[in-house]
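Data's thin. Show one?
=====
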Amino acid sequence: MKIDIVLDTNVLVAALKSSRGASFRLLSLVEHDRFTLHLSTPLVSEYEAVLKRGITALSAEEIDDIIDFLCSRAILNKIFYLWRPVLKDPDDDFVLELAVKANAAIVTWNVTDYKQAARFSVVVMTPREFLTSLEV
């Protein structure tokens, strides 16, 4: 059974900064259909905005290609409801809303930021924990 996940932006950033960590291994599995990735327009917009701040060595075109690839492999969800604020960082609320809509786990390096996700029965785990759950 494939696991449904929402990939927090910090995991994508970590994956694109280093090819040696759990984030990179997780990102490299997207094309192998080991899990189902869920996206929303706000999350894709955040991916693009953060990555294009120059925090990686990638060009704007390479970033566009990566985002296009993720979009081609993911399920795009439309969110018709908002619960804000719920989380410590209100900028993370749209990630929680997507996870609830998609019935998906949140994969993030900032697990403590999503403590309130348990109220919505949303599992939150690090990339390393997620990879372990896949037995990779």
About this structure: The helical segments are 9-17, 22-28, 41-51, 60-73, 93-102, 127-134. The chain has a mean pLDDT of 92. The longest helix spans residues 60-73. The chain is about 45% helix and 10% strand.
